[in-house]
Design brief:
The chain is of the alpha+beta class and 296 residues long. It has a single domain, classed as Beta-lactamase (3-Layer(aba) Sandwich). 36% of the residues lie in helices and 12% in strands. It is built from eleven helices and nine strands. It has a four-stranded mixed beta sheet with strand order 5-9-4-6. A three-stranded antiparallel beta sheet has the order 1-3-2, with helices on both faces. A hairpin with a 2-residue loop joins strand 2 and strand 3. Helix 2 packs parallel to helix 6 and helix 5 packs across helix 6.
Length: 296
């Protein structure tokens, strides 16, 4: 049975029971769960383990939250809109002139936020080192041709969303997206949310754990290690995922952007990746801080 820690207001004890059952019945490894109601924190729980050695997933634990990062990135843009500094219907080139290449001059800022620009990837392969350099990636996006006519389709900009919106935030505010998050959200609210994790916080992160056995917890439907032959994952599911997410597929391109550099899921465990600013995917936080920000 998972060790559940934290507090729950009496009227929300059923939520705590559901949280615990997620470990008992659904093979959860480690998690945090926080709820604010009308400005008050009514649920604040952690449980399970944070790594393969069995370190407790507790109130000090941080984790990368992947696409949850997009929410904070979008908040940054909308805060600028609220202040009258950014117009969602203005063309991107008003703020980012270099973006005009390949007839992109009419794309409005709004389409970057709603995944309609067609810039799901850059036009060339990239190394990890290049992918972690903000100026290199944003310059490549500005020089790239959309994979569909902008505005005619919606398609998930899994990784590029962050650089596209983040560059708009940078051009308007003069701050990197990570700096903007700290100034406008994390600092004022006393929340722990970083896009670009400081070295001082790296040891607190719960890493991605290879699928299989974790601190004595057997995770079904997952391979024990890369290349393992004892995977219980159905062959049909593997084939389907390869078809949907393969490098020749648009979804695969979007998820491995920029230029295939982020194709390996284990690369997200590297401290250099956490330290970079990838504002569609590499935000690092905890449930308490995320709930605090959304409750503000």
């Amino acid at each position: 049975m998972a060790d559940i820690r934290g507090t729950t207001e009496a009227q929300f004890e059923e939520l705590a029971e559901v949280f615990e059952k997620n470990f008992e019945l659904h093979d959860e490894v480690g998690a945090g769960f926080s709820v604010y109601l009308e400005g008050d924190k009514v649920v604040d729980l952690t449980g399970g383990v944070a790594n393969s050695e069995g370190r407790a997933y507790d109130e000090d634990t941080l984790q990368m939250v992947f696409s949850t990062t997009k929410g904070l990135t979008a908040m940054c843009a909308h805060l600028l809109v609220q202040r009258g500094e950014l117009d969602l219907d203005a063309p991107v080139v008003k703020y980012w002139p270099e973006f005009a290449d390949h007839d992109k001059g009419e794309i409005p800022v709004r389409w970057l936020l709603c995944h309609r620009s067609g810039l799901i990837d850059v036009d060339r392969p990239m190394t990890v080192e290049e992918a972690l350099d903000w100026d290199t990636v944003t310059a490549a996006l500005a020089a790239s041709k959309p994979v569909w006519e902008p505005g005619t389709m919606h398609g998930y900009h899994a990784i590029t969303f962050g650089w596209l919106v983040g560059e708009i935030v940078r051009r308007v505010s003069g701050l990197s997206i990570g700096e903007f998050v700290q100034r406008e959200f994390s600092g004022p609210l006393g929340a722990e949310f970083w896009i670009g994790l400081p070295e001082s916080e790296q040891s607190r992160v719960a890493p991605l754990i290879p699928m299989g056995e974790v601190a004595g917890i057997e995770i079904p439907m997952m391979a024990a290690e890369e290349g393992s032959s004892d995977s219980e994952t159905p062959a049909g599911l593997i084939e389907m995922l390869e078809m949907l997410l393969g490098p020749g597929n648009l979804a695969g391109k979007a998820l491995s952007a920029p230029g295939g550099a982020m194709a390996s899921e284990q690369i997200w465990n590297e401290p250099r990746v956490r330290a970079a600013q990838i504002p569609a995917a590499n935000g690092v936080t905890n449930a308490r801080s995320l709930a605090r920000i959304y409750a503000a």
